[in-house]
Design a protein that fits this description.
Distance between the termini: 28 Å
Strand order of the largest sheet: 1-2
Shape: elongated
Order of helices and strands: HEEH
Number of helices: 2
């Protein structure tokens, strides 16, 4: 995976994406889990808004 990331950054398109980490609370146990994803910069608010 590292080779793919490096190749993307060299082409200049890597700046269009961000790694977003969202904390989600489980309603049954009350425990928190984390969901992380690489998202296009235009869709960050949509990712954080969704449940």
């Amino acid at each position: 995976m590292a080779k793919k990331v490096v190749a993307t950054l060299k082409s200049g398109k890597g700046k269009e994406f961000s790694k977003v980490i969202k904390m989600i609370k489980n309603p049954q146990t009350g425990a928190y889990s984390f969901r992380e994803e690489v998202v296009h910069n235009d869709h960050i608010k949509d990712f954080l808004k969704d449940k």
